[in-house]
Specification:
266 residues; two-stranded antiparallel ribbon; elongated
């Protein structure tokens, strides 16, 4: 009787597995891809390896504050494989901590989004970003100089003057004579962060900083701006920054593109 019951159970399990068509991938197989699961989760659907769908995996976590670890695991796997992750590969010693930070990030984003919808001030769908698995201290290091800074705290030594910018073929809008030195960082990740920050805070100083970084980047394909054309290009870039931030907030994997100053599209 027991053997018969076992056969029936195995048949039912096989039928369900076939009907769902979901292939699972365990922690050992994931480790070969330098992807780790938290200790509370043993496997995920194989489709979770499709990191380009990270935004979709996050959006499926409805009311995340009430969900268990398994609900976040798929997005956590996709995040590790995505260009958004900037930390070193996780280890057995830190993966649970990174997973906790990742969960908190999603829960906080969901809370913020819900609050904005209640206020009906603007549409905002928050998701995963470059800092989703970072501690507070690590976030400060990653966005060093990107947080809201009081310019008076720094002094003239922290600014690049107009003469220096002209030497680098950088054109500023009329009335602007200097920008912070970190705006001249040619690291592609820095350009990405500066542009996201501009779209997030929508402050003229942030747009300008990202715009300067864009001008000296390898991404820009247009001729050097002139005093007559710079305002038009800056306007397009602002539109691009806003679109980029919204896309990143939705979990899409995109970066600053060559048309950012031309059409306003990332």
């Amino acid at each position: 009787m027991a053997k018969t019951s076992m056969k029936i159970w195995l048949f039912f399990w096989a039928l369900v597995s076939v009907s769902t068509g979901e292939e699972r991938i365990d922690r050992a197989s994931l480790r070969e891809k330098q992807v780790l699961l938290p200790s509370t989760v043993n496997d995920v659907g194989e489709y979770c390896l499709e990191h380009e769908n990270l935004g979709k995996f996050v959006s499926r976590i409805e009311e995340p504050a009430s969900k268990g670890d398994s609900a976040f695991a798929c997005a956590f796997v996709a995040f590790q494989l995505s260009p958004l992750k900037k930390t070193a590969p996780y280890t057995n010693a830190n993966v649970d901590d990174r997973f906790s930070l990742f969960k908190v990030s999603i829960i906080a984003a969901d809370s913020f989004t819900s609050g904005q919808k209640k206020k009906s001030t603007y549409e905002y769908t928050s998701g995963v970003d470059l800092a989703s698995d970072l501690t507070t201290d690590e976030r400060a290091v990653l966005v060093d100089g990107l947080a809201a800074i009081d310019d008076s705290e720094c002094g003239d030594a922290c600014f690049a003057k107009l003469e220096t910018l002209k030497d680098q073929k950088i054109t500023l809008p009329s009335g602007v004579e200097s920008v912070r030195l970190y705006c001249l960082d040619q690291d592609p990740d820095m350009l990405h962060l500066l542009t996201i920050k501009a779209g997030l805070f929508e402050r003229e100083s942030d747009y300008l900083c990202a715009f300067v970084a864009f001008q000296i980047s390898s991404v820009k394909t247009t001729d050097p701006y002139t005093e007559e054309t710079v305002d038009s290009y800056l306007s397009n870039f602002k539109t691009c920054a806003n679109k980029l931030h919204k896309s990143i907030a939705n979990g899409d994997i995109i970066s600053v593109g060559t048309t950012c100053d031309i059409s306003g599209d990332p």
